Amino acid sequence: MEKFKALVISPSGSPTVTMIESPQQLREIIGGWLEFIHFGEGAGCYIHEEAKVPPNIPVINGLATYLCNVVGCPLRKNDYIAGTMVIFGTLDKNGGYDEDEHDIPESVLRKIREAIKLRYGMGGIDESS
Which pTM value belongs to this model? Predict the structure, then answer.
């Protein structure tokens, strides 16, 4: 795994652009086993595979759920994202899918910024990391 730029959306904090440097760091951010979700437009995301499974107490991530439904691939009716979500690019520099993680596309970040501004009236992404 090469390092890549991703957007981390925790249930309680603002979205943060973060450089992911190792699988261990990614698992620590997510808090457990990784589950992949296709996000659309050359992006994917990881969530905690067992965040909704007892004995875990699901912590609904309202912003991540909203972004999946508005920007990414819509979730099933009444479904939600629990815990932290990490969005990243799925296409290599040639535009091909190679099953590796890549930098989150600027086009996806732009759509996320627009969706956050539309819903919350602010830009809402911390890009200082």
Answer: 0.91
* Helix, strand, coil % over all residues of the chain, rounded to 5: 25, 30, 45
pLDDT tens-digit readout, 60-90: 999 999 999 999 989 999 999 999 999 999 9
Q: How far from 15 is each of 34, 40, 78, 109, 126, CA to CA, in Å?
A: 19, 18, 23, 11, 6
- Domain spans of the chain? 4-120
CA distance 26 to 37: 15
Residues 6+ apart with CB under 8 A from 37: 44, 45, 46, 47, 68, 72, 73
